[in-house]
Amino acid sequence: MKTLAASNDMGARNDIADHMLNIRTSVIEGHLAFQTRRIRAARANECGLQILTLPQLAARLAGGFTAPLATEALELAVQRALAQGGLLELDAVRHLPGMNRAVSRTLRKVWDADIDLQSKARSGHARLADLALIEERIRRSLPNATLTPHDLRSVALGRIHHAKRVIGPLTIEGLSWIAPIWRSLIEALSKEIPVEWHAPAHAETDWFAGPVVRPEQTRAEREASAVSCADPHHEVVESLRWARHLIVSGAAKPYEIAIASAGTTPWDDHFCALAADAGLRLHFTHGIPALSTRDGQRCAALADVLLHGVNQQRVRRLVPLCGGQHDLLDALPQQWMASIPRGATLARMEDWRRAISAMVLKDPSLGGAQAILPLVELLTKGISAAREAGHNFLRGRAMQLWESALRTAPPEAIELSLQNARFESENDAADSIVWCSARDLAAAPRTHVRLLGLTNRNWPRHSGNDSILPDHVLPADELDIDPVAKADRRHFRVILEAASGEIVLSRSRRSAQGSRVGRSPLLQDRPESSLSRARIPEHAWNEADRLMARPEDAAKIDRIASADRCWRNWHLGSLTRNDGQFDADHPIILRAIERVQSPTSLQRLLRDPLGFVWRYGLGWMAPQDREQPLTMAPAEFGKLVHELLRRAVDLLEPQPGYARASDGEIEDALKEAVQVVRESWPLEGHVPPTLLWNNTLDFAASLALVGLLRKEITETGTRSWTEVPFGQSEDFAIERELPWDPRIPVTVPGTPVKLRGTIDRLDLRMDHSAARVTDYKTSEAPRNASRIVINGGAELQRALYGLACRQLLQEETQIVARLLYLRGEPLALRLHDLNAAIEQIAAFINVAVAMLRRGAAVPGRQSFDKSNELRLALPASPGYERRKLIAYNKASESIARFWSAP
Predict the structure, then answer these.
(1) pLDDT per residue over 324-338, tens digit each?
(2) DSSP category for residue 87
(3) Buried/exposed 170-190: b ≥16 CB within 10 Å, e otherwise
(4) Cα Rg of the chain (Å, integer)
(5) Closest CA to 171 of 149, 153, 157, 189
(6) pLDDT-above-70 percentage for the chain
(7) Cis ω before 254 (30° cut-off from 0)
């Protein structure tokens, strides 16, 4: 039994030995070549085949756990080496953004050229000595199993006698050029095992003594067609049309199609955005931009907060993005941020504490939101806390991206690092169209090829001095042994010769920035077809492209037909439905008129009827600035002054009473109001940064003090109120003593308009025999201010405030209405005839309402004013205003006379 068992065991060992003797190796270059060769081996059932790059070949021969130096490991090692300092020339620039990448790139060139830095450093040049020191530090910092290319080759040469059993017959597939550092290894291997190079026709094989197999010539270069497109975006569109046409027509499978360029950056974003809409599987050999993924946006949001400071908008973006990673953020109450006022800036940690506390006080179920405070406090530390913040907010792939970005450059330049970062493509090259660099495609050619960017700038690219070892330190022909321009030309020829299907050579007539660009010298005298951006394609790449090619189908879609009518109506001199014309008594218009109007909405109705329809009929709102402002808008500044006035007077009433208060008491009340507003306003709306906010508040307080000191009250039985509401809804909460019930309706006599609003200041005698309303203005008084009555509808408040007092005070009260300009030289302007002003406003309202009910809304005096926030919705071209001027003047004839009223 033992003899039989021993015999079986020996047979198994012989089978393993036979298998080991049948091992063979294929050497490729690049990620695309690796994927392509692997799928080809799987389909052909090639057992015993090793697919390796040249560094991996050396590591395989070196044995054990030896591994070549990866790019990320090299950049990390360079970062550590530079951090140690002690360099002669590079010490002053070692912390600059991009330094890690620049040194890594230079070291790769040095190693590829097989240059011994240690011997070069003895020449006495400080730059070479610095680089030699960095190389030595890298060697010492690397794990024992990770070797630099020089060391890896040396170890592999020392174990070259194992090549027969470890490597087997060797085939170099598709490489058009081999760096000098690996040539000695290839030559040594050729003495131990069969080495065959399957090289393209233009490969540099003069140094290789072994057999070289050239492909058969399958086509001539003249069969390639050349086209020019408008810009890089148009090139991408035409590429997708071409690829879809090949697939749909049955001429090619997706894995037989490649789109390439010498450098991929100008087209990457366009391919990333358009490929999904095209419904085509597109493989990015060089990886997809990291910022196009959710993980990339998580890192971008975190970098935005750390670099530019904490505010509510940035935190609102960061928290939802980083949720769903099974961390502390997932434990926060749902919709907790909905309870924080959206307008609040929240630029300080103290603001966040008070905002969260107020939110919890209002809704105790949101108490778990307190857990966000330590994280916000961490964010307030800025970019110096980048690593700690990454561990608290990021997980998985996002964390790997964040750490890689911090290794590539200093934290202050992390945004630039993230822009250049990439993730592996989600589609496999084995069943997808490939978008890649010419270098990758030359190593793994495909049947059908479209080459982009064949301009005098992009292909071939221009070689420049190395940033670390410029020409005066080390000659370029010694360092850069395969210049980029030379490599681009070689890859171009290799790709064309290997493609046996359709070849299209494409270029842009203009760059992405709009500048003109010329033809590449590689195009030579090839005839070129100029493709128009608006041309009708032979095959559409998506649904929108199909509709552009078939106007009759597009016209059946309501939105497209509406856009077409709008464009045609834009050129007509008459008014159309796109110029504010609609059906008479339209329900939307009737609802907008029937709503309770404020002085602001009434002013827009009279001075900008079209804007009134947009704002109060259709509900259009101007976009709000998401960033922290440096200044306050005039309207917001006016609200700030009114808030100070209200709080100061409320502090003085009823005791000692604003009318009886001394100047010192008024100033003390204003100081207390300023302190409250200083703390509360940042929790409610946008305010400038702290220093500017304090200056703005001080200036507002100075204007408020001017208004408060101009009491002009002689009767001791007079009481003052500020911010007095009137015409409010039934559910309005009355929180303080008021001179009337603010829920009583107020109407403009003889019109369908109801009013609501807030009177800036009301001085009322105790017996209601007289009342004075004041409308504060924070601007300087205009010229001829004494002539102003309604100012063409721009000054309605004091007359409307007087009207409200007349209707809400039951007694026969003498009403005085005035404007009080606070800036510059204070000026009080009394309205001499309140009754006449009210009658004029009523007639103005009736004309505007009648015009809207007829189905016409025209731009008014306010429409094209720079202060009009809805001006963005008007056509930008001044030609539109000129073209429609006569028609608009005719339509607004009845209302225009009021716009000139004093």
Answers:
(1) 777 777 778 877 877
(2) -
(3) bbbbbbbbbbebbeebbebbb
(4) 39
(5) 189
(6) 96
(7) no
